[in-house]
Amino acid sequence: MTRRRLAISAEPLTARHDVALLDLDGVVYRGPDPIAGAVDHLAAAGAAGMQLGFVTNNASRPPREVAEHLRGLGIDLRDHDVVTSAQAAARLVAAEVPAGSQVLVIGGPGLVEALAEHDLLACSSLDDGPAAVVQGFHRSVGWEMLAEGAYAVATGLPWVASNLDRTVPTPRGIAPGNGTLVAVIQAATGVAPVVAGKPEPALVRESVLRTGADRPLMVGDRLDTDISGASRYSMPSLLVLTGVTSLPDLLAAEGDERPDFVAADLAGLLTRHPEVMSAGSAAATCCGWTARVDDGQLRLRPSVPGDSPDDEPVNAPVDAPGAGVAALRAVVAAGWAARDSGAAEVGLGSVAQQLDELASAPP
Length: 363
Hints:
33% helix, Rossmann fold, elongated, six-stranded parallel beta sheet, alpha/beta
């Protein structure tokens, strides 16, 4: 397996990339509310010249409804700045059937409107003579809709799923997602769908097409969808720790689930990401910070002479702007090095608290 390492950016990511493709839940908002600082960070990224695209695996809402939600949080955007897995799924269906065809929809308005963009007509029964089946999450999906889908899929019709996320966050907790509902039809028919959403490339391609990105950056909180999807498209990625991925999850990441850049939150778009230097087995330094794994436990401290090669700025002030990013990069690099050397797991000790304090400290 290829051992991926953190990438370097000598300038803020807003200068390096023309478009940020932002996942929503866990990155921009959590439930109905914005994540702390997200609105201001996105405004600053836009002011720096970075175009913002909002990309979601959730197919339940049309882009205009998602955009209305985001505008209500104080984010300045246009409806077409939102790209959904329903749009990517509809494009896959359109490649399989002629314009004007009926398509059986297992889902809601997000899919219906996306199909209409390709001159495809939504229907709800196999008796309507559909040419394909498309499935996406919606709260209205129940047994009758799933059964109709199973009948249609069993006849051999093309079947496209918007995504395979097994869960969806709600204000009351974690609930079954589209992947769980897709599994019902798959269990009944023995057939697997073509998938549009992350980590599959269709939604990433759709996002690049609709935003016109030349140097895009995927920004997400999930290793298995956002980061893996970017890696499989050969697109750089930034992981933020405001959603489902915890620091232990990040340290355990392997292969294409390792991001290029890491940050506590969307402020990571606005800073440089300095080089990480190896400081021996399972140890790393970055811009005045040293992280080391000893006896399975991570330790983080300001660097001192002897920690790293002569060209590493060990005397960088620990309260300098970007200290949180530098310390996090050292921690992640040391953790990955330990895992790559065969460590079964890496304990955090007080490192998580140290990183939280650095991330929340004023510049």
